Amino acid sequence: MSVMEERLTLSNTELKRLRVLEMIQAEQVTVVQATELLGVSERHCWRLLARYRATGAAGLVHRNRGRPSSHRLPDAVRVEVLVLAQGVCRDYNDQHLTDVLQEEHGLQVSRASVRRIRRSAGLASPHKYRRRRSHLRRERYAQFGMLFQIDASQHAWLEARGPHLALVAAIDDATNQVVGAVFREREDAAGYFLLLRDIARRHGVPLALYADRHTIFQSPSKPTLEQELAGELPQSQFGRLCVRLNIQLIAAHSPQAKGRIERLWGTWQDRLVKELRQAGAATLDAANQVLTAYLDKHNQRFAVAAQQAGSACHPLPDGTDLERLFAFRYQRCVANDHTIALDGQRLQLPAAPNGRSYARATVELYHFMDGRLVVTYHDQPLVTFLPAVPGPPRVEVFCPQTGATPLPSQPAEPVRLPPSQTVQATPKPAPDHPWRKGFGAKPGPASEAKQTPTP
User: Whole domain around residue 406: which residue ranges?
Assistant: First the structure.
């Protein structure tokens, strides 16, 4: 008769208990000494010894081995997680999928369980692991409003449904709260003006802004002699706005320096893209509507408490004209023909009512966010140009007798003037023009043809 051998697998803890119990049987140690070796109570040591004497080494195996856990997820829940992970949420990472299961499906599943279910089904993480470089940790600012990090991300936010957009946003360094964001057709100064205006309305003016070295924030122009003597540097439109608002504009030397908002782009290029996809957003206006609703959801999930309560933002003074404050400003010198230069073109100014000439006078131009262009002299408006509707952004002279042209709802950037409202430069005379004959110019083909005698 053959003897069937049964193979028994013991863990390291169970093997240690087996050796100690064998020493008790051999009277090498006492039960009291065995409790110190095993780290159990004397009562439990006697219980283990009784099991060993009754069934041998098999009595030391944990009774729950081979049994399903009482905390095991139901099979229906596991199936639902796999259906989502293989379907609409196939490109969601483990944490994002866990949040979706809790918020939209009411399934309280841990991230570890989601990861284990996906890996057991052969579904790897959609994000590749990248070895992180070592950087020194910078402590957060202590209070909300002490420092906002601002930046823009040009990305296929609408995927193949719409145009390639740029997302301009600001995040608080102390709380990780996104204080403002807006979609734009491209990264431009007007987008940062709109962002800062929205922040000033809802939260107040921060103490400092942390940005990169884009020409939007730092002017690429060389300082003039007067600026060098005064120890000043040329300022961009956004830089002058920060000076008027008493905001310190700090320039970062590397993307890692403003890593908080850089990590925000990584989160949003993963999560916000899917929110826009679910909403079916395909235009700039639709994307901004989805973004407005998503901000509160994002801040509830990722915002943290600041070390100090309260806000360091200071409110704008009562009676502040936000429209005039958040406008592009230019200074121009009026030519003798009552024109001023703007973006390589000439803008005609009307004659003064009293016949006064503004020639050689310095005027200031205000280009508002709604597209209006106002020319002022000593803070007195001389003429207003409005954007034409419909069509691409243009400006036209405002006539008080006929009324103003309706303004578009979407803010427009500073635009070029149409030919009807500009003064064209004097054309150059032709090479064969009689005016050139007295200045030693070479005769052109046309003049040579005229000098050739006819047969």
Answer: 327-421
